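INPUT
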Amino acid sequence: MLIKDKLILFTAGFLVIILFLSLGSIYIFGKVSNNIELLQSVSEEHSVHEDLKRAVREYIEVVQQWALTSNPKYKRMFQVKREAALKSFGALDRYVINEEKLNEIGREFEEVDIIARSILKAKPGSESSFKKNLPQLSEYDLKIDALISQMDEMSIQHLKAVARRTDVSKDTVTTFLLIMIVLGGIAALSLITILKRSISDPITSIIEATDRISNGDLSYKVPVTSSDELGLLSERFNVMVDKVSSSDSALKYRLSETELLLDIAKIAGTATDIKAGFNIIVQIISERLNKDGCAIYVLDEDSGSLRKEASAGIYETSFNDEIIADDVIAKEALTHHRPLFLSGSDISKTSGLTGINGTMLSIPILVNGKMFGIMLTITNIEEDLDQDELNLFILISHTIGTAIRNVELYSGTKVQLKRISALYKLAQTLTDTITISELFKKVTEEMTRLLEARGCIIRLLEENKLPVKSSFGLSFEMEKEMELEIGDGIAGWVAENGKPLLVEDASHMPENMRVPVIDVKSVICVPMFIADRIIGTIGIYDKKDPLGNIISFDNDDLSTMEGFASLTSVAIDKAMSYERERDRERTVLEAKKRMEILFESVRGGIITINRDWKVILANRYIENWTDRRLDDIIGHNSLEIFHKANNPICPHCVAKATFETGEINTITQSRGINYAELSSYPIKDNKGNVSEAVVFIQDITDRVLYQEEILSLYKEVSQTKEYLESLIDNSADAIVTTDIEGNVTSWNKGAEKIYGFREDEAIGTFLPFLPEFLVETERKYIERLTEGETIKDIETVRLRKDGTMFEVSLTLSPIKDTSGEVIGITGISRDISEKKKVEKELIRRNQELSRLFFISSAMRGTLELEKLLRMVLTAVTMSDGLGFNRAMLFMTDEDKNSVKGVMGVGPASHEEAWQIWDKLSLEQKTLPEVLQEVEESPLKKDSFLDKLSTGIEVSLDEDTAIAKAVKEKKAINIIDVHQEPGSDNVIIQQTGTQAYVLIPLISRDRVTGVLWADNYFNRKPITDEDIRFLTGFADQVAAAIESARLFEQVKLAEAELENIFESISDMVYFNSKDYEIKSINKAVSDKIGLPPEEIIGQKCYKIFHGMDHPWEKCPHHKTVMKKEAFVEELEDPHLGGTFLVSSSPIFNQQDDFLGTVHVVRDITEQKLMREKLATADRMAALGEVAAKVAHEIRNPLVSIGGFSRRLEKKLEGDLKDYASVISKEVIRLERILREILGYVREVRLTHEPAFINDIIKDVLPLFMEEARKRKISISTTYGKKMSEIDVDINKIKEGLINLIGNALEAVPDNGKIKIKTYVKDNFSVTEISDTGHGIDKKDMPYLFDPFYTTKVAGTGLGLSITHRIVEQHKGKIEVESEEGKGTKFIIYLPSKEV
Amino acid sequence: MKILIVDDDPAIRMLYKEELEDEGYSVIVASTGEEALKLFDNENPDIVTLDILMPGMDGIQVLRHMKDKNPKLPVIMSTAYDYRDDFAVWASEAYIVKSADLTQLKETIKQLAGDK
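OUTPUT
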């Protein structure tokens, strides 16, 4: 049965079961739902009953409440409750089972309703009806309640019946459901079983099959169980798998074949050792192709037989080592190139392989038709020849053949390549290598490496010997020992015969053909040629195989060596010639360089001159002998060069003689202070003629001078010697010379006189005058003297011959020989015993005085009082000065009648004292230095003693030492404070002093102060000497203090003066006589505009006049010239102004002119004013004179002339003529007068082209100030196209000023003035209008009349003048005015005629 | 036509008087400014010739007084010296530098008289 039919059956069964189950379900559901509906209606009925009960009760309650309370609320509720009760009643209708009961309830309710209504209708408060009705109502209520309860009871009864019925149907349903479940389960199980058996199982087995196949298990078969489609499918699947499985094994076989081939090819291709490769190949074949034996034979080309190279398999050893050419196998393979298949007994018959009864296959190994050998395989089982296998073997043999060939090719090429690259490398080396030694080193190294030898030796043929020049593998010592003679040893033989030699084993060679020193086996030695000449040999020895065994060289090696040798010899030749060339070049270069250095470095001139006196060559020293530069010398004529120089030398003069004689010639010449030695050397040409001469010029000045010097020195020395000798002889001093041992060598007369020994007594003895105790000292002196020292002015004692001792002053100096070595001693001694005392005193006094002198002079230099005082105290305390430990200074105060400490110097404590003294002795400062320091450094008054001293004040009224010193004007020495009466307790307390000295400072008979000093630290007693000295010092100090005080006062005054000087507004300055500005005040620096430091020190003419030389007008200059004072006015364009300069000379007290002082006042303004005034005055005067003249002369002339004219008219004849003469003369005179005075002049107007607008603009600013003040606005309206006018601008301005001025006067404050210009009928018109009071009509006609004015101030000429001006310009002026409103002037000026 | 001649020089006064009388004018003369002003008031001249440089009141002062009194009266300034730099003289109608030749004076008078 097919699956389709099975499925149809299955579906039909399934539908029957479903139908059955559905019908059962419908029945059961019907039953259950009936019961549920019944239960629901019963419960609803019960609730309706309850509702009705409640509604009736509420209804009744409302009525009762109304009856009881009469509250209208209940009356309102009554109807509502009634309705509700009725509605509940209506709802009961649906559930009615017992009609009778319902009707009964209805009747009862009607009763209630009646009663209720009656109650409600009754008036509240009518107790009677209520009493009756209310209980009734309650009764009815209870009745209705009971009825409803009965009904309820009935319905519950009914419900119980229903419940019972439901219980019965529940059981039925349960049974039915159980049956249905059992039936459904059975149906489903049977269906599942059927489905599984017929569909699922076959499919599962097929899936499993595919799974296995995909995992490679091709042997699995699907079990065929049914005959339906799936069974069919399984069957077919099995067939398919069978087919796949068979093709897979074929494929696998192919694959292993290919793998085999690839492996073999890989081995064959990569194996460098072909034999090892063969071994692997046969192994693979026997293993993989399941052969019992496999072997490879290679053809030996010489014998033609086949040699076994490798074998493998069980029969590995069965294969013969060789298969001879006649063998069938060999023949078949070698001749016919065919494989041979043998089986059974044929094998042993044909191949000689015994014990093999299977099959044997022989495959020739062929590549490109060339036979390499054969491959044999054997199996022990007899089987047919498989064509596939045969093909495989043919492929394998081919691969092997190819591999063999490749290996052959490879090894051949490798050797070739190695040699070629070595040769290339060598050739490269040879061309690169320059030095022979380098070359040899490379060759031996390369050769050894290339030919895999132990070492290499190069020998060169040198005088029939073959020394080793270079080697590889030998030490230098060995090389030395290996030298051979020609014909001796292998190299000797090769060098002699010129033929190469290959020795396979040197130990077999005869004795004279051995390699010396080293033990060698194989040798190649080849000769080296340069053009048929043998130059040496190259030999290598002991070829090594890869394992390091010594083997013989072959012919390839020999030919390689020969190649090397020829290359090497060429390179040697090249290197040798290169080295020769280089050596030659170097020699030449060095020679040239040496020459050049020589040429330039000789301290002399070298010059080459030819016969034409032309300078061919010259070095730079020649420049010193000429006035030319070197490049200006060479190529020029020698005569020209040298004869033109100052103080010439003459090289050609020297050369001339050489040219003539061909000999060397030398002369000496001088050039100025220089001397020259000129030597001329001939240069001969090929023919032996002197063509050029080299002149060597040497400066021998030094030499000459040196000679002269020596000469004069010699003279001097000889003179000195004479002089000295006589001096020594005649000297009053004892002059004794000794050798360095102290033995007297000379003894002068002075010595005889002083020491008492005669010369002959003294000479040769050891210092006869030396006291015993001074011998050691003397030895030390001698030691110092032998070191070249001179010992001067030592004071020591000496012995006379009579044994008396006396003081001498001694000077010892060494005597040196020419080499500077001390050979003796000169001693000059003087008897000073007599003078000594006097001298000592003198010296001391001298020192004292000089110290005093110094201190006082140092102090005079200092004018600052404080510093001076400090210096005084320093001088007192300095050991170099007066040497006291401490010093203080007290100054007298006359007002207070006391002395007061002002300053103190000295250490504060013992420690400080030592520190200071140490420091001072270390620094070694001299008094002058210390004083200078005090003077230059800022003054400090903060030392301990300063503070101490300033705290001390002693009244002079007291009876103390200090008061005494002041009063009595004398020094007081307190030797011991405890002993001395009246010592100063204050000072003693403060200073702790034990002894001190007080020195009054007296200046002009007045005690100005007291100097206090003590030796507190070293307790040195103060001596009378000290006091005497201190007193002398005090006088100086007092004087210095006085002058310092004065100076301070002067300085104060000076500062005041300086202030005045600075504050003078006039320029004040001092000039030195050489025009240098020394001092200026502030006014000068202000005027010049430079800071004072840039003015002071400059030349005055530069600063003040901007000139570079004195200005002759300058008062300073004049003062310098005339030494007089000048006061004058000076105009200086540089400073820009006029100055009143007073310049006065300054003279010092010696009447030397020092410079000038200037006071300069800037009077520029003043002068200008004055000048203006003068001009005005002059003009006025002139005018006056002119007017006077005119008046005085013209008036009479007018009368004279006038009357003469009248006479002329009246007279006749001669008289008329006379009168006429007078008239004419008067005319002449008038004309002259006119000309002289120049006053007959029309008031001429100048005429300039102008525009009225511009003129107005010029004028307006004059009024702005006033307009602004009075808040008058002046507005202008300028015409755009104004015509040009030809006017006297100033006059027009005058006119405008008048008009605008009038307008300004006319308008009140805040008024307005308008100015307007335009062109009208060839006139340039200007309107000036104001908002003033206007002009009275009656004044209008007189407006322009002179002196007519309405103003309070003014001449009244303004308008009149303006009128005139305008008229003179041929213009006109109009006026429009309205009283109270304003006035307008209109000026017409004619346009310029074009 | 009455002309007042003011000049401190008697000769000139005489000359002008004679010459102008010859021309047919009636002439009165004054030697000082004060006198001239008196005559100006009393004689009521038609034209005045006025010298400037005079002792006492000078011509310019006189001119001012005269113009104050009668601005329309023509005044000729006749001086030995040219004072025309002084604007004051601009108030006069004419200005003549004295000369022996009186032609200019006469013409000026004629012109001014004609204007009148």
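end of record. The two ends of chain A are 149 Å apart (CA to CA).
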